[in-house]
Amino acid sequence: MKGCQNKCMAGGCSEEATKYVTESFKASDLIITPATTLKEKPDPTGLVFGTVFTDNMLTIEWSSASGWEKPCIRPLQNLSLHPACSSLHYATELFEGMKAYRGVDGKIRLFRPSLNMDRMARSARRMTLPCFDQNELLECIRKLVEVEKEWVPYSTAASLYIRPTLIGTEPSLGVKKPTKALLYVILSPVGAYFSSECFNPISLWADPKYVRAWKGGTGDCKLGGNYGSSICAQQEALELGCQQVLWLYGEDHQITEVGTMNLFLYWINEDGENELATPPLDGIILPGVTRQSILDLARNWGEFKVSERYITMSDLTAALEENRVKEMFGAGTACIVCPISKILYKGKHLHIPTMENGPQLTTQILNKLTDIQFTRLPQ
Fold first, then answer.
1. pLDDT tens-digit profile of 187-220?
2. Assign residue 253 a region: left if phi > 0, alpha if psi is -120 to 50, beta otherwise?
3. Contact in structure between 262 and 332 (CB atoms under 8 Å)
4. pLDDT digit string (tens) for 142-176?
5. DSSP letters for 32-76
6. With contact defined as beta carbons under 8 Å apart, do 75 and 39 qualify?
7. Which among 264, 335, 345, 379 could bridge 206 via Cys, Cβ 3.0 to 4.6 Å?
8. Is 0.85 surpassed by the pTM of this model?
9. Torsion of CA 357, 361, 362, 366, to 10 degrees
10. Angle of the 289-301 helix axis to the 113-126 helix axis, nearest 10
C-alpha cells in the first residue's frame, strides 16, 4: 500500500484497514477551477478571528469503494450532506489549525506545517477516518495558498489561518467506521490576537467538576468533540467573571490546559531552580505546535531548566505563598502566547504575578516566534 502514513501497525496498515484505504490522492492530480468572482480583501487591522473566508477551498472526497478522488480547488461553497451524516450524529471528524505568513521579504511561508500533518494523521487514526499521505496533503495546501496568495495579509500583525478538516460522511445511523469521508481546507485571514500597544492578561476559572480530557480518551487529538463539550464550562467561567477555563484533572487537581491552549509556568521550582514547566504529553494534553516550538526555543537558549512535568494546584498555591511564581501563560496558534494574571479556585482569587514580572519571558517568546514567522530572524 502506498501513501498511508497513519502507521496503523508496526508493519503498515492492517488487513482490515486496507479494505478502507487505497493509494493516497496526489497533488499532481489537483484540479483547479478557481472562483471567477472575487471578494474584496479586508483591512487586516479590523479582522475578527474566523469570520472572513477566502474565495476558494480545497476538497478531496473518499469512499471505501473507490478510495480517494482527485483533489480539487474550487470556489468556497456550502457542503451538501445527508441528514444521517455520521459526523453530524457521532462526531466522526477532526481538524487542524495552522497559518501562512507573509515575511518582511515578501515571501509566503507556513510555520512548521509537518507537525500539523503528523497530528492530523494521528487524529484520523483515532477517529477511524481514512489514511492519507501527509506530504501530498501539504502540497495541496501549498497550492491552495498560492491560489489565494493575495489573501495573505501584507502585514506583520496578521496572517492567513488554514483550517484542514476531515469528516465522516457515512449516510447511515449505524455507529461504525465511516465508509465515506470528505477532506477539505478553508482559509481565513486573521489579525493579531493582541494589538501592538496591548498585551492583556486573562483570568481563569479552575473547578474540577468539568474535565476536558481523561486517560484513554481523545484529549491528545484535535477533534471537534473536545471543543464543543468545553463550551458549557467556558460559559460558566464568563458568568463568574473569568475569561477562560483552567482545566484540572484527577483527585490531586493536576493543571492540564487553559481554554484551548497549552499551559506554561515559569517559576522557581521546589529545588530552587528557575524552571519553565508544562504538563507532559500523557494522552490528555494536545501536542501543540506552539507548545513544541516554545520548548525547542527555551532548550536552545539554555538559560533555565525546561521540563515537561506534572503540576498540581497545591504545587501552584504553595509556590504563590512562597513568592516563587514568575509568569504563567497559555500558548497556541491563535495567540502564540497569552499571559495569565488571576485564577479563581475554590472561591478564592489567586493572583499570578505575570505582568509584574514584565512579562519578560512571555514577551521574549512572543517576539522570537513572530520574528521567525515573519522572517525577521532565520528559521
1. 999 997 755 445 789 999 999 999 999 999 999 9
2. left
3. yes
4. 999 999 999 999 999 999 999 999 999 999 999 99
5. E---SS-PPPPPGGG--TTS---SEEEEEEEETTTEE---EEEE-
6. no
7. 345
8. yes
9. 140
10. 130
